[in-house]
């Protein structure tokens, strides 16, 4: 019985350690097509900033680069930097 407990513990520990390796990266958010609720999934982007992104995009056309997002009022370079790997321009 003791061997089974040790084995079960080892299997549990191994699965806990390896689980982040199996986790999928979240899909990149296309800032040219994302709606307000999708944009709020980004770090530091609440509903008001997401609405500002959509409004800017509607007034100025699609973004040419992720960095251009910093032109939106309330979105700074730091916010863009934090989310750069999670955003795409397609």
UniProtKB/TrEMBL annotation:
Domain Helix-hairpin-helix DNA-binding motif class, first and last residues per copy: 37-56, 67-86
Q: Which GO terms describe its molecular function?
A: DNA binding
Signal peptide as annotated in the record:
1-23
Q: Could you state one GO biological process linked to this protein?
A: protein secretion by the type II secretion system
Q: In its keyword annotation, does this UniProt entry include DNA damage?
A: no
Gene Ontology cellular component annotations, sorted alphabetically: type II protein secretion system complex
Source superkingdom: Bacteria
Keywords (alphabetical) are: Signal
Which InterPro entries does the entry link to?
Answer: Competence_ComEA_HhH, Endo/Exo/Phosphatase_dom_1, Hlx-hairpin-Hlx_DNA-bd_motif, RuvA_2-like
Q: Does the keyword Transit peptide apply?
A: no
Provide the protein name: Competence protein ComEA
């Amino acid at each position: 019985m003791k061997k089974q407990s040790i084995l079960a513990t080892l299997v549990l520990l191994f699965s806990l350690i390896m689980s982040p390796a199996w986790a999928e990266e979240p899909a990149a958010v296309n800032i040219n097509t994302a709606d307000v609720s999708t944009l709020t999934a980004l770090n530091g982007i609440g509903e008001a900033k997401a609405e500002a992104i959509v409004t800017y995009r509607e007034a100025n056309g699609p973004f040419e680069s992720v960095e251009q997002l910093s032109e939106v009022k309330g979105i700074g370079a730091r916010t863009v930097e934090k989310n750069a790997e999670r955003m795409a321009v397609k």
